[in-house]
Specification:
- The complex is a heterodimer of chains A (208) and B (612).
- Chain A is an all-alpha fold.
- Chain A has helices at 3-10, 22-52, 62-65, 68-93, 97-128, 137-170, 176-207.
- In chain A, helix 2 runs antiparallel to helix 6 and helix 2 (22-52) runs parallel beside helix 7 (176-207).
- Chain A is elongated and about 65 Å long.
- In chain B, helix 2 (9-37) packs antiparallel against helix 3 (48-82).
- In chain B, 66% of the residues lie in helices and 1% in strands.
- Chain B has 612 residues and is mainly alpha-helical.
- Chain B has helices at residues 2-5, 9-37, 48-82, 91-110, 138-166, 179-210, 224-258, 265-279, 294-306, 308-322, 331-354, 356-362, 366-396, 402-428, 445-473, 514-520, 543-559, 568-575, 578-596, 606-611, and strands spanning 535-537, 602-604.
- Chain B has 20 helices and 2 strands.
- The two termini of chain B are 25 Å apart.
- The chains are: A mainly alpha (208), B mainly alpha (612).
- At the A-B interface, helix 2 and helix 6 of A face helix 5, helix 6, helix 7 and helix 19 of B.
- Chain B: Its main location: membrane.
- Chain B: This is Cytochrome c oxidase subunit 1.
- Chain B: InterPro entries: Cyt_c_oxase-like_su1_dom (IPR023616), Cyt_c_oxase-like_su1_sf (IPR036927), Cyt_C_Oxase_1 (IPR000883), Cyt_c_Oxase_su1_BS (IPR023615), Cyt_c_oxidase_su1_bac (IPR014241).
- Chain B: It comes from Paenibacillus sonchi.
């Protein structure tokens, strides 16, 4: 319904609408800074995990728990969602609002699938392996690090969903474009963090 | 209502000042109570538990809720003016940062009336801060209150970084920025990279206490020294978050009242950057006695001593700025000049403590207490006094009374040295910190009495300052644009207090100390960089306030989630995380509203600008 109107507006947009206004440029810059802070946040969580990863308190260890095919599937979903968010931004740069919206929807869907897999994984650990927050220092560190990432994914899903709604209401403008661009940056960041989690938590847990 | 919804950086500065001032007063009263308890040996004025709560809350309140907001007040009031901007990059976030700070601070102080304040020391070392040794909700108030307040600080830091990078007036290159802007810039960068570490630390401690996680519980495989690493990798840079803005203020005040350019501007800039960098490298010097081993101790010892080099550069540059200048000893300059020797003394004891073998002797004695009070009170608080007296006319349009200002200075600085100078000797003689009393006839009696008298005198100095503020507020707001007559930077080119849009026309900057440069080349005003046009202003909004209220409610809900209330309704609301959920719904609902309803702000038209 509003798509036609939005397509019309998109015709007048500059090539990189996210950087067309000072406010947009400020948003992108501040978001890079914010991601710097987020890196320290996850760095501290990773350091905590590395310090405590062998402290299993006679509970299950990483090697007992992790099931790599499941984690690999989750990783694949999240990596592809990063790619689809790139497609979304490319569509935005070409001014194609419908394509942009569809790629954002795909991204959100893949993120949801990832989250479902993670919740399934946690529930298996808790129910069948008796591996909960209170089991050991390793379990506390595991749930905190991976859970923090999961919470970031959940927030990203909510955020991008709201932006899809905003896109429908207001179309693609120099106000909405920076928000979409920044949310894509956020999504890539989550993806990068997951690559580290995959390596440091899961691969190292299996073979380290 | 106007104050709850404002997004104007100048009003937010005043909010920060009053809120910070309030917490500063609370922290000061706690200090006085501590000193009364220690006035004589075996005193029974306070019991041990209350004393523990007081020292914990004194340290926490002063650092997080007292001096940081006053720093933020000055940064908010001054930075946009000094760089020739009409506001900060994100006015909405600026308001949000203030309100989260305030509600975090209120939450922390609610602990006094809700079952006991935190009692594990301001560093909350584990295992002392775990439920095993600290059974009340005190430390929960600490972790969650600081978490919320820290969120505000982080938001503020990012906002100032973006503001300084993108909103400088034409011609103001990085190497033409006033030193206070530089100091605030570096401070904000440290905030950005240090605060997320304490965020994680506080989360881990909260999880240990509320969700029974095992991060710091050695019986379940946890590691209690881990807390110290996380705390100090934040905590040491925090010291520079506090002191660098004071350095910036001193670098503004001294050249103005010496009528000379700041000596060695570029070395000042690079010294500031170097201090920030080294500040991240030295956290384990707080942990020499935890058994890190000689190699680690040696490395952290040497890197700590290195910080004396850029700091020394700064001290000498201030002295050389005054050298041969026409120095005027106004109140701000008295504080600035008083800062130099006092802070230097704090730095010297810092080098002494940095020597690991010596630290084994000094550790946890009053020598350490004396050292950090020389740095933080003798450095930062004197700096803040200098800055407040200096910029008061710009913030409020009224000059503070000079005579009362000089009385404030002399009572405060004499009281300060009386209080803390003798504590060096108490520490060297072996008096331990954090202990609520001491035995007679250990030669501690007289020095403690002197110290308490000094604390009282500092209190008198504060009262004189408050009197000065009160009397000044009753005078008409008639301060001239450039009340010190030798103003060097852009804030002195506009009226006092500035109009809500700051600059009618963005000024063109033609060199370091932009206004001074114009004055010395015979101009009375700045050359504008743009014609008079409509000015875009952001709209006022209640949403930042509501978002902070939501976080506050969620925090309280989470904290009491495992309590047995003996009341079905309360139990139902808290034990099922319903209160937490309500708080989060308020916060996320406000975010959603903000997202769905764009507010494009409003314009001030040129005719209106001319009318004023």
């Amino acid at each position: 319904m509003t798509t036609a109107h939005a397509e019309g507006a998109a015709g007048n947009l500059p090539h990189e609408p996210e950087k067309a206004t000072l406010e947009g440029r400020n948003k992108v810059l501040a978001f890079w800074l914010f991601l710097g802070g987020e890196s320290v946040l996850f760095g501290t969580l990773f350091a905590t995990f590395l310090a405590l990863r062998n402290q299993t308190n006679e509970g299950p260890s990483a090697n007992d728990l992790f099931h790599l095919p499941l984690v690999a599937a989750a990783t694949f979903l999240l990596l592809v969602s990063s790619l689809t968010s790139v497609f979304a931004i490319q569509a935005m740069h070409r001014g194609k609002v419908t394509v942009l919206r569809n790629w954002l929807l795909v991204t959100v869907f893949l993120g949801l699938c990832f989250l479902v897999l993670e919740i399934y994984e946690f529930s298996v650990y808790v129910r069948h392996e008796e591996f909960g927050m209170t089991t050991s220092a390793f379990s506390s560190a595991f749930y905190t690090l991976v859970g923090f990432h999961g919470a970031h994914v959940a927030f990203g899903i909510l955020w991008i969903s709201v932006l899809i709604g905003q896109l429908a209401r207001k179309g693609l403008t120099v106000v909405t474009a920076p928000k979409i661009y920044v949310s894509a940056m956020y999504w890539h960041f989550i993806d990068v963090v997951w690559v580290f989690i995959f390596t440091v938590v899961y691969l190292l847990g299996k073979v380290g | 209502m106007d104050w709850i919804t404002t997004v104007d950086h100048k009003k937010i500065a005043i909010l920060y000042l009053w809120a910070g001032g309030l917490f500063f007063g609370i922290g000061g009263l706690e200090a006085i109570l501590i000193r009364i308890q220690l006035i004589k040996p075996m005193n029974t004025f306070l019991d041990a538990q209350t004393f523990n709560e007081l020292i914990t809350m004194h340290g926490t309140t002063m650092i997080f809720l007292g001096v940081m907001p006053v720093i933020f007040a000055l940064m908010n009031a001054v930075i946009p003016l000094q760089i020739g901007a009409r506001d900060v990059a994100f006015p909405f976030l600026n308001a949000l940062g203030f309100w989260t700070f305030l509600f975090g601070g209120v939450l922390l102080n609610l602990s006094w009336i809700m079952g006991g304040a935190p009692d594990a020391g301001w560093t909350s070392y584990t295992p002392l801060s775990t439920t095993q040794y600290s059974g009340t909700h005190g430390v929960d108030f600490y972790t969650i209150g600081l978490q919320i307040a820290g969120l505000g600080t982080l938001i503020g830091g990012i906002n100032f970084l973006a503001t300084i990078i993108t909103m400088r007036a034409p011609g103001m290159s990085f190497m033409r920025m006033p030193m206070f802007v530089w100091a605030s810039f570096i401070t904000s960068a440290i905030i950005l990279f240090a605060f997320p570490a304490i965020t994680v630390g506080l989360v881990l401690l909260t999880f240990d206490r509320i969700l029974e996680a095992n991060f710091f519980d050695t019986s379940a495989g946890g590691n209690s020294v881990l807390w110290q690493h996380i705390f100090w990798i934040f905590g040491h840079p925090e010291v520079y978050i506090l002191i660098l803005p004071a350095f910036g203020i001193i670098s503004e005040v001294i050249p103005t009242f010496a009528r000379k350019r700041l000596f060695g501007y570029s070395s000042m800039v690079f010294a500031t950057i170097l201090i920030a960098f080294l500040g991240f490298m030295v956290w384990a010097h707080h942990m020499f006695t935890t058994g890190l081993g000689p190699v680690a101790n040696a490395l952290f010892s040497v890197s700590t001593m290195l910080i004396a080099v850029p700091t020394g550069i700064k001290i000498f540059n201030w002295l050389f700025t005054m050298w041969g200048g026409q120095v005027r000893f106004t109140t701000p300059n008295l504080f600035a000049v008083g800062f130099i020797p006092t802070f230097t003394m704090g730095g010297v004891t810092g080098v002494m403590l940095a020597s690991a073998p010596a630290d084994f002797q000094f550790h946890d004695t009053y020598f350490v207490v004396a050292h950090f009070h020389y740095v933080i009170v003798g450095g930062l608080v004197l700096g803040l006094f200098a800055g407040l007296h200096y910029w008061w006319p710009k913030m409020f349009g009224r000059m503070l009374n000079e005579t009362l200002g000089k009385w404030t200075f002399w009572t405060f600085i004499i009281g300060f040295h009386l209080t803390f100078f003798v504590q060096h000797f108490l520490g060297l003689m072996g008096m331990q910190r954090r202990v609520f009393t001491y035995l007679p006839n250990q030669q501690f009696d007289l020095l403690n009495l002197i110290s308490t008298i000094g604390a009282g005198l500092m209190g008198v100095g504060m009262l004189i300052f408050l009197t000065n503020i009160f009397l000044t507020s009753r005078k008409p707001a008639d301060a001239p644009d450039d009340p010190w007559e030798d103003g060097r930077t852009l804030e002195w080119t506009i009226s006092s207090p500035p109009p809500e849009y700051n600059f009618k026309q963005t000024p063109l900057v033609r060199g370091l100390d932009a206004f001074w440069k114009e004055k010395t080349s015979g101009h009375k005003t700045m050359t504008p960089a743009e014609p008079v046009g409509p000015i875009h202003m952001p709209s006022a909004t209640i949403l930042p306030f509501l978002m902070s209220v939501g976080i506050f409610i969620a925090g309280l809900g989470f904290m009491f989630s495992r309590d047995d209330f003996g009341n079905a309704f309360m139990g139902f609301m808290f034990n099922n995380y319903l209160v937490t959920a309500i708080g989060l719904v308020i916060t996320f609902g406000s975010m959603l509203l903000r997202s769905l309803y764009d507010d494009h702000g409003w314009h001030i038209e040129p005719e209106e600008l001319e009318g004023r």
